[in-house]
Amino acid sequence: MTFAGRSVLVTGGLGFIGSAVARALAAAGADVAVLDALTPGDGGDRRNVEDVKDRIAITIGDVRDDAVVRELVRGRSHVFHLAGQVSHVDAMEDPRADLGKNTEASIALLEACRRTTPRPRVVFASTRQVYGRARRLPLDEEHPCEPVDANGIHKWAAERHHLLYDQVLDVPSVCLRLTNTYGPGQLVRHARQGFIGWFVRKVVERSTIEVMGDGAQLRDLNHVDDVVDAMLRAAASDARGVVWNLGAEPMSIRAIAELLVEIRGAGTIRFVPFPEERLRIDVGSAHASWERIRRAIGWEPRVPLRDGLASTIRHYDAHLARYLP
Amino acid sequence: MTFAGRSVLVTGGLGFIGSAVARALAAAGADVAVLDALTPGDGGDRRNVEDVKDRIAITIGDVRDDAVVRELVRGRSHVFHLAGQVSHVDAMEDPRADLGKNTEASIALLEACRRTTPRPRVVFASTRQVYGRARRLPLDEEHPCEPVDANGIHKWAAERHHLLYDQVLDVPSVCLRLTNTYGPGQLVRHARQGFIGWFVRKVVERSTIEVMGDGAQLRDLNHVDDVVDAMLRAAASDARGVVWNLGAEPMSIRAIAELLVEIRGAGTIRFVPFPEERLRIDVGSAHASWERIRRAIGWEPRVPLRDGLASTIRHYDAHLARYLP
Question: Based on the domain organization, do A279 and A235 belong to the same domain?
């Protein structure tokens, strides 16, 4: 199938990944609506869609606002649900706010979807964080979910609601568990949404990357183009009621930092002790198997890490000021 | 240890199980505070503590009210957290309300606990419903959690928060997954909080028990005295950061209905088709292994089912009017 002529909604569509999804859908000829609360600090920014702002319809609002979301889901063939709070640190500081933005917002969206006909297909951006600490690697979808931070708990609950509404209330849904996503447009203002954006900023600034601990923990990084590809493929498929990991070849955080410095030809690395509040919610090594989604719809990560990081660095070298307060 | 002279809080303490916990603690010489929102339909009722009302301090309020709960947890050695919404049917009708009463309320309570010193030990009343449909029986604590209704999702998230606050924020917590609890004081006004109270009412009224489907699904029933025993033992133990099933020998729903009719010497049984909305969230056969809690703290169910049901029937035969609107 193609998205040409389709009417679609992207929640969180002014954020890093959401805006990339919206842009790809607009380029594919879809009629794109975007809902974003522009919550300060959460990542939404109108400048993320500056280049396509005349081709998408933007609503500033909260997914939990029933009147707004009911109107926005009507007549849509697909909903890409990316609105949410993504910082594990912020979630621990204010878990009730995180519950509202992740779990309650998902319920509100799904309630709106079940009350419209025909029901849109929903693709939900979940997170590898739902697994918690890995009992085995790579993480597959049968691995127990034992999240060790509030954000992981709330995303897991949101996932289960998508599956519940799929099974019980006939809202076709697919949940993708995203791993660390990087690329042009990612948030670099602060370090609370993951390490990779912060590392990129540091090398762009020819500054010092601070690696917590010894940096031996493994991570897998997906370029945003690959994540967008996964979301569009999942939306276009017939699959429903499923949970699929994204993932990539693992690399240590230390090696990622070294690769960034090498590509940039500048920057230094410093190892610092884990702050206590980070250590308690750190999951150690974590990377995921993408075998299930590959078999189901043929997705695999395509952007080589070196190329992806190099173009990301070039982007921020040219446009860093745009992303700073 | 003993609870004599201890200062304890019971949330949901005017409900069926909560009031039994409060009564047992008062009998053990504890200084008992009770918090209950008396939400219409949820089960809280002042008459549940009529016999001990002069020995417990009752606050009518919501666990989510920070000012109230912070004041109430101060100086407590133990918090028994039983407040919540327990109807799966109601949870599906209004999942956002259920999220608030179960997950958000637990976060609010735990936040209050972490902000007081010394921190109380928390015993949380979770539910077997977190497992969803059984992949194997009996359900043990390693069985995957795949809840098939909103209430199960929200109780699971509440459990995880108890474990999180235990591990990360040093609020010692134990989660008990309760199965079907029965006994004097259980809600018999409507059928939305499980089948057993409704069945008891029907035989007390010498009326007809309607069994959905063929009644072959297995269930395990714990008498409320056994549940109270488990909660007090868990509170008195040194265990923390753990999840334990309660459970009992399984019996089919049909056999339970037949046993009730036999004990009462009256009543009839009729088999009716599952209503569609119930069938979709029904978990089939479900009963749990209590081996883990038995090994840890020596708990096991002690009230024989026949004796427990007989005394429950006698109770409602004498006092049914008190429990009806």
Answer: no
